[in-house]
């Protein structure tokens, strides 16, 4: 916990996927913030003397048995409280409102109309776009409340209590897909909590280098290097801290794209002076994945196998105690319950939830609390080349989570060819840097086609392209029709085994970016 003289805002975590994003938005607005368990008591909060309290979203329904709650005395501390989604529903319920399942659930982009004037929604236009992710709504609002906004399906989208400093929003102001979100957070901090905004983030690189030195001492580190931006930045930070006591290990797990291994080695040699071990482990990974179709099982097998390979390879280097990975906050929050709280597992990212219990290494993960766009900024500051910093993410489990169900050599080949075409066409259309992530997914279900007067009965390729900065929420990218046309035309003509191409037009939430 911080000392008392720093202005801070507490975020009570009810299991939100976005708790760190709320913290980040508050910190970006120059107010320190800290995430705490929803079980914190009003007495404990009194000692911390926060300027404001934010109740996060969460997966539960406030009216269900065992739903996480909070100390009701918090509402009487005289400290302004902002409830977001679940947090709004909980706050409203504690103050006498009724919350029920909504007839029409809202996920993704929604239009919201703002009524009247108030400090909380100051400077916003009358109609704003907000990002929703909820199935419950406040259905009855007592007279002590004022309604500040509504959407087509949600009569109380923003509310304010008349006698207490309680505000609630049903949407998520913390995500970038709510364009006025940061302004709403800023209004809460400055108009409602009267913060002075005197907090600044330390220079991350300097702090991180010091932290790595403190953690590693005179020890040796191996770093899992994938060719992606996260592990590249991790390796560069660690190299800056401990020099040649760092060795990098790149694993070809047989789940990579066309020519990926060659390209990763080339880029590394051109940009890093650290030592690189390339491990060809295709057979090990594909052997273990044989016959496995459950996504969570695939992820765990891959996570475990990565560690075994790292261990084997580390034995060839003397005395390695530490394993570095380019883990980011979204990997952490989607994989494991945070703060021992009520967060649910969405998917086990191979480098977090997919790790074995007995690791045999101490982890060094300097980027564990950051988001992708922050990591890219650090990469630029460290002087890494633009192409590397701007590269679309590629998950550690690779093509294994882009083939729905069981993996086989033949399916991998089909997907590699289709994926190559998608990327080529996107580059040709000048869209690569506009899209956050773009790839092909193989759906091994057969549909009927007609090719050259013959009946075909073959697989489907889905094209996924998303727009996002932090990968916590995402919208589908509107690829122009001509480009979609040439992608489809080329895949069906050039890739044997595919007779249909579909385009994924789902947002995250409720979908995720990867299909498994
Ligand atoms: N093929 C690989 N060989 C070695 N380590 C890997 C490999 N794939 C993933 N990792 C490790 O797992 C971590 C998480 O993977 P992830 O894909 O999230 O990050 P990244 O590959 O570094 O960046 P990006 O998200 O841009 O692809 C990596 O940072 C790296 O430490
Ligand atoms: O290294 C990784 N190991 C994993 O197990 C993993 N699963 C998802 N991802 C990447 O994370 C981002 C968010 O993806 P989802 O919306 O599918 O959760 C996207 O960028 C995904 O590509 C992974 N990266
Ligand atoms: N994102 C949230 O906080 C969701 C709250 C609640 N589970 C609902 O569906 O309405
Ligand atoms: Mg990657």
UniProtKB/TrEMBL annotation:
<dbReference type="GO" id="GO:0008483">
    <property type="term" value="F:transaminase activity"/>
</dbReference>
<comment type="pathway">
    <text>Purine metabolism; GMP biosynthesis; GMP from XMP (L-Gln route): step 1/1.</text>
</comment>
<dbReference type="InterPro" id="IPR022955">
    <property type="entry name" value="GMP_synthase"/>
</dbReference>
<dbReference type="InterPro" id="IPR029062">
    <property type="entry name" value="Class_I_gatase-like"/>
</dbReference>
<dbReference type="Pfam" id="PF00958">
    <property type="entry name" value="GMP_synt_C"/>
</dbReference>
<dbReference type="InterPro" id="IPR004739">
    <property type="entry name" value="GMP_synth_GATase"/>
</dbReference>
<protein>
    <recommendedName>
        <fullName>GMP synthase [glutamine-hydrolyzing]</fullName>
        <ecNumber>6.3.5.2</ecNumber>
    </recommendedName>
</protein>
<keyword id="KW-0436">Ligase</keyword>
<dbReference type="InterPro" id="IPR017926">
    <property type="entry name" value="GATASE"/>
</dbReference>
<dbReference type="InterPro" id="IPR025777">
    <property type="entry name" value="GMPS_ATP_PPase_dom"/>
</dbReference>
<dbReference type="GO" id="GO:0005524">
    <property type="term" value="F:ATP binding"/>
</dbReference>
<feature type="active site">
    <location>
        <position position="174"/>
    </location>
</feature>
<feature type="domain" description="GMPS ATP-PPase">
    <location>
        <begin position="199"/>
        <end position="391"/>
    </location>
</feature>
<keyword id="KW-0658">Purine biosynthesis</keyword>
<dbReference type="Pfam" id="PF02540">
    <property type="entry name" value="NAD_synthase"/>
</dbReference>
<keyword id="KW-0315">Glutamine amidotransferase</keyword>
<keyword id="KW-0808">Transferase</keyword>
<comment type="function">
    <text>Catalyzes the synthesis of GMP from XMP.</text>
</comment>
<keyword id="KW-0032">Aminotransferase</keyword>
<dbReference type="InterPro" id="IPR022310">
    <property type="entry name" value="NAD/GMP_synthase"/>
</dbReference>
<dbReference type="GO" id="GO:0003921">
    <property type="term" value="F:GMP synthase activity"/>
</dbReference>
<feature type="binding site">
    <location>
        <begin position="226"/>
        <end position="232"/>
    </location>
    <ligand>
        <name>ATP</name>
    </ligand>
</feature>
<dbReference type="Pfam" id="PF00117">
    <property type="entry name" value="GATase"/>
</dbReference>
<feature type="active site">
    <location>
        <position position="172"/>
    </location>
</feature>
<feature type="active site" description="Nucleophile">
    <location>
        <position position="85"/>
    </location>
</feature>
<dbReference type="InterPro" id="IPR014729">
    <property type="entry name" value="Rossmann-like_a/b/a_fold"/>
</dbReference>
<keyword id="KW-0332">GMP biosynthesis</keyword>
<keyword id="KW-0547">Nucleotide-binding</keyword>
<comment type="subunit">
    <text>Homodimer.</text>
</comment>
<keyword id="KW-0067">ATP-binding</keyword>
<dbReference type="InterPro" id="IPR001674">
    <property type="entry name" value="GMP_synth_C"/>
</dbReference>
<dbReference type="GO" id="GO:0005829">
    <property type="term" value="C:cytosol"/>
</dbReference>
């Amino acid at each position: 916990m911080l000392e008392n003289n720093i202005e801070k805002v507490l975020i009570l975590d009810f299991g939100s996927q976005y708790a760190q994003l709320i913290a980040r938005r508050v910190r970006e607005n120059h107010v320190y913030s800290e995430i705490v368990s929803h079980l914190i008591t009003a007495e404990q909060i009194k000692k911390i003397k926060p300027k404001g309290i934010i109740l996060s979203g969460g997966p539960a329904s406030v009216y269900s048995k065992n739903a996480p709650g909070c100390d009701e005395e918090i509402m009487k501390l005289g400290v302004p409280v902002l409830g977001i989604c679940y947090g709004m529903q909980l706050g409203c319920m504690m103050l006498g409102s009724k919350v029920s399942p909504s007839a029409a659930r809202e996920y993704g982009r929604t239009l919201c109309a703002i009524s009247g004037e108030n400090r909380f929604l100051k400077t916003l236009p009358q109609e704003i776009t907000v990002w929703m992710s909820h199935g419950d709504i406040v259905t009855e609002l007592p007279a002590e409340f004022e309604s500040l906004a509504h959407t087509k399906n949600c009569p109380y989208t923003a509310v304010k209590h008349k006698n207490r400093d309680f505000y609630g929003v049903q949407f998520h102001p913390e995500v970038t897909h709510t364009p006025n979100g940061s302004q709403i957070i800023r209004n809460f901090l400055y108009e409602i909590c009267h913060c002075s905004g005197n907090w600044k983030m330390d220079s991350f690189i300097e702090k991180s280098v010091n932290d790595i030195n403190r953690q590693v001492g005179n020890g040796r580190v191996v770093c899992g290097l994938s060719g992606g931006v996260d592990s590249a930045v991790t390796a560069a930070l660690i190299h800056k801290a401990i020099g040649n006591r760092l060795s990098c290990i790149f694993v070809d797990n047989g789940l990579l794209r066309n020519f990926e291994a060659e390209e990763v080695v080339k880029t590394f040699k051109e940009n890093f002076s650290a030592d690189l071990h390339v491990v060809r482990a295709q057979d090990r990974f594909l052997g273990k994945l044989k016959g496995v179709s459950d996504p969570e099982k695939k992820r765990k097998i891959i996570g475990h196998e990565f560690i075994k390979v790292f261990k084997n390879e580390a034995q060839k280097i003397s005395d390695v105690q530490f394993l570095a990975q380019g883990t980011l906050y979204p990997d952490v929050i989607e994989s494991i319950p945070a703060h021992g709280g009520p967060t649910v597992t969405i998917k086990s990212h191979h480098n977090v939830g997919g790790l074995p219990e007995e690791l045999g290494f101490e982890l060094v993960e300097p980027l564990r609390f950051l988001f992708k766009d922050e990591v890219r900024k650090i990469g630029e500051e460290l002087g890494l080349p633009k192409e590397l910093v701007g590269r679309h993410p590629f998950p550690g489990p690779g093509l294994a989570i882009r083939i729905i169900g069981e993996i086989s050599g033949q399916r991998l080949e089909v997907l590699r060819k289709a994926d190559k075409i998608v990327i080529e066409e996107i580059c040709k259309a000048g869209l690569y840097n506009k899209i956050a992530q773009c790839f092909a997914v193989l759906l091994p279900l057969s549909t009927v086609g007609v090719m050259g007067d013959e009946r075909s009965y073959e697989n489907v390729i889905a094209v996924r392209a998303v727009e996002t900065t932090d990968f916590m929420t995402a919208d589908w990218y509107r690829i122009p029709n001509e480009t979609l046309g040439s992608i489809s035309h080329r895949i069906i003509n050039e890739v044997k085994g595919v007779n249909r191409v579909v385009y994924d037009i789902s947002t995250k939430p409720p979908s995720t970016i990867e299909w498994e």
